[in-house]
Specification:
Layout lengths: L2 E5 L6 H12 L2 E4 L1 H13 L7 H7 L5 E6 L2 E6 L2 E2 L7 H10 L3 H17 L2 E5 L2 H5 L5 E6 L2 H14 L6 H17 L12 E4 L5 H16 L1
Parallel strand pairs: 1-6, 1-7, 2-6, 7-8
Antiparallel strand pairs: 3-4, 4-5
Helix pairs in contact: 1-9, 2-4, 4-8, 7-8
The structure holds 2'-deoxycytidine-5'-monophosphate (DC).
Length: 221
């Protein structure tokens, strides 16, 4: 199976790029952030104190999480319920960032991610795909952009969905989350040594896709 890993900080355009690559190559797109977000949603709904690691770990066995991929889109289910956009709010972003460093949470989501990459050609986006989940991926891209660019993109994305927020709020939250994600002990969001760095601050989504396809072609031949 061909595995393509796309890592990088939030708002860099990973999911947009990964979706486009998957469509172009006929691969399955796996959004791993949605898994952490879904665990976060479960904790929030259950009133779990997410600052308390032991409480989060104790609640984990109740999380019944599955992924389905149909027509190029991924849907995550908590039990029978499709989570949809409920995992895209700023509050869930913050909770996901708080719980994702917990080794037990990562271990809980590990097999789900590894198994699908064994069965299918995938483009998987996340933070530790090239380093931990798919260390043998044939192609690894670390995608980033300046903080301001990333915050503006996320701001537009949320306001288009009707979620009320400000650019300043997003930028501050993003800086804080980046810091948390980079400095955590477990699976920090850093590039694998064999990843190709791609900065798309000055590129639109189509140009980013072309740059990525070039990298993919050079790796796969
Ligand atoms: O990519 P995203 O914004 O949907 O990710 C949500 C949170 O989950 C973010 O704080 C980073 C974390 N995450 C992670 O730790 N590992 C992944 N593979 C994907 C996301």
């Amino acid at each position: 199976m061909i595995n393509i890993a796309i890592d990088g900080p939030s708002g860099g355009g990973k999911s947009t790029l990964a979706k486009k690559i998957a469509k172009e190559l006929g691969y399955i797109y796996v959004d791993t952030g949605a898994l952490y977000r879904s665990v976060a949603l479960y904790m929030q709904r259950g009133g779990v104190n997410v600052q308390d690691r032991a409480a989060v770990i104790a609640a984990l066995p109740g999380v019944a999480i599955t992924m389905k991929h149909e027509g190029g889109t991924q849907q995550v289910y908590l039990g029978d319920e499709m989570v949809g956009d409920a995992i895209r709010t700023p509050e869930i972003s913050q909770i996901a960032s708080l719980i994702s460093p917990i080794p037990e949470v990562r271990a809980f989501l590990l097999s789900l991610q590894m198994e699908i990459a064994e069965r299918e050609n995938v483009v998987m986006d996340g933070r530790d795909i090239g380093t931990v989940i798919l260390p043998k991926a044939q192609v690894k891209i670390f995608l980033s952009a300046s903080n301001q660019t990333r915050a503006m993109r996320r701001y537009k994305e949320l306001t288009e969905k009707g979620i009320q927020t400000t650019y300043e709020e997003i930028l501050a939250a993003m800086n804080q989350r980046d810091e948390q994600d980079r400095n955590r002990e477990t699976a920090p969001a850093i590039a694998a040594p064999d990843a190709v760095l791609l900065d798309n601050s000055e590129l639109d989504p189509e140009q980013t896709l072309q740059a990525a396809l070039e990298i993919i072609r050079s790796k796969l031949g």
